[in-house]
């Protein structure tokens, strides 16, 4: 039984993704949680790329890791500004 480098890389990316997503769920600080969610999505995109799905990887990276994280951070920033006034 031969284990290829792609299989090892995929396992590492998926374990790291699970760690960052669990961190995002458990964190009390919303900014750190949304950044952790973005990192988890980026790692998931890398796993998609290693599995041979580059279109899914680009979509995951651009929409989930990029757009959703920026929207969450801007919404958190707007809420914190309103609460301080």
Which structural traits does this protein have?
single chain, 85 residues, mainly alpha, elongated
Describe it.
The chain is mostly helical and 85 residues long. It is 88% helix and 0% strand. The protein has one domain.
Number of strands: 0
**Helix-and-strand structural type:** mainly alpha
Beta content comes to under 5%
Order of helices and strands: HHH
Give the helix proportion (percent range): over 70%
Biggest sheet layout: none
- The radius of gyration is 16 Å
For the termini, the CA-CA separation is 63 Å
- Count of individual helical segments: 3
Counting structural domains, the number is: 1
Mean pLDDT: 87
Shape: elongated
Low-confidence stretches: none
Summarize the structure.
88% of the residues lie in helices and 0% in strands. It contains 3 helices and no strands.
Topology:
Blueprint: H1 5-26, H2 30-51, H3 54-84
Helix pairs in contact: 1-2, 2-3
